[in-house]
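quick one
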Amino acid sequence: MHDVVIVGAGPVGLFLACELGLAGCSVLVLEREAEPRSPYKGKSLGMRGLSAASVEAFHRRGMLHQLRVASGAHDDPGADSEARPPSSLRGVGHFAGMRLDPARMDDAALPYRLPGAAMDGMVTHLEAVETVLSEQASRLGVEIRRGVTVSALTQNEESAVAHAGEHAYPARWVVGCDGGRSTVRGLAGFAFVGTEPQFTGYTMQASAADDGKLRSGINLTPTGMYLQMVAGHIAMADFDGGAFDRSQQLTRDHLQSVLRRVSGTDVTLTEVHLASSFTDRAMQTTTYRRGRVLLAGDAAHIHSPLGGQGLNTGIGDAMNLGWKLAATVHGHAPDGLLDTYTRERHPIGAKVLDWSRAQVAVMRPDPHCQAIQGVVRDLIGTRDGTTYVAQRLSGASIRYDLGSEHPLVGRSAPDLHLEDGTRLSDLMRDGRGVALDFSTGQCLHGSAKGWQSRMRHEAGPVRNDLGLGAVLVRPDGVVAWAGEPTPDRAAFEEAASRWFGCPES
Ligand SMILES: Cc1cc2nc3c(=O)[nH]c(=O)nc-3n(C[C@H](O)[C@H](O)[C@H](O)COP(=O)(O)OP(=O)(O)OC[C@H]3O[C@@H](n4cnc5c(N)ncnc54)[C@H](O)[C@@H]3O)c2cc1C
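structure w/ flavin-adenine dinucleotide:
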């Protein structure tokens, strides 16, 4: 009997496995594919944009350097990036194909964001993400069993059992991280609701006889959209109501005819090396937990890849769920802690689905939608518009409602920098919460002792205190409480009990 069985060794299942392993849970990951590698996960078709929030998650667990190396990034800013410009949102993508101008970003809109190694998003690919996470999971004692397809599931009040053929894998909890066509979601009876697709999307690695006929970058056309970031890697959206997706073989003739239609050219594809299709179907489960079965990542929410948010949302789910499930397994979770997973993450997923729907609506090739496109383009071109979209894409706009009016509570913690050179992110590597006390009298010392196995207490002056005296940061990097220069100890203890349970005797 494992503490947790995770179904699916995609990026979300692996990230969650690392979080649970770090917290000392016994974890088994069951993965359908016998081989971790696939041409669809490599540098071309597997290319993915990670938001600043996801980069921060890797950084907080000490995996960012490995991820940059595995991704082939040449611009590793190193652990201490004080010299970098304060804007975290440089190079942030687009909305419905309309690119943002980073120069218009208003850094003053993010007063609590401090410069550090995880200020920007980055480009990676699925193979790099999964390799780094698999290695970390193995170091943490997580077992990954490949070539195992989960096909049945049972649960009672004490446990849940995933079945694959003749084999049964019992656990106290099962988490479905098995992607958009999740088997676990169906077997556990989750309701999956949302909207049907407007388009079939395609992504392909192809050679063209005359690729000069295609423009580079993202191109919104009167008949759809096509995108070519590097020569030969082409994506496109064909507004056929999603009819084609997975209904027929992806032939060269079909892809060429769609590309000609959406690009308005007579380009000729000489060879298609790899291709896959997708749609903008936008669906989400109504809850992320049923009894002893939980969902995370694409298993819980699917939408079009426009604006690159699916993986980022899934990593956010894994960070949020990991420590809560671990505390529940270890028996020290305060009442209702696990239910805050759905309460916090479901609204984030719903917003991402709407963000994707809004982009599809703006991209539709009809006169009304194109008129809206013009208006949105004007708005995005303003300073406030750029800042708004950049905050949504980077994850900087995410704030959980934790019932506090303090503007920092519920947000990702600023990477505070102690005078001795330590950063808050350095203190988060072991997966515990952090009480960082930079008040003059360092008065939280006695209070924090009560939770020392679940929360680390560090004290000392910081280089930029942001007008605060102390912060309590949850293991997922979210600020649970922020104290004045002379912190209120009783308020700190109340927040610590709320998130970390009763103090140890
Ligand atoms: C073209 C494209 C571009 C994208 N670009 C971006 C981007 O730039 N940024 C971004 O954030 N997101 C992007 N996404 C979305 C992102 O790829 C997904 O959201 C992400 O991969 C989901 O991860 P996951 O771990 O939840 O699911 P998956 O990656 O689908 O992993 C699920 C795993 O579960 C396994 N599995 C399935 N069923 C079973 C079973 N019954 N038993 C055992 N194992 C099972 C599968 O083999 C797989 O390994 C893009 C998607 C596409 C299609």
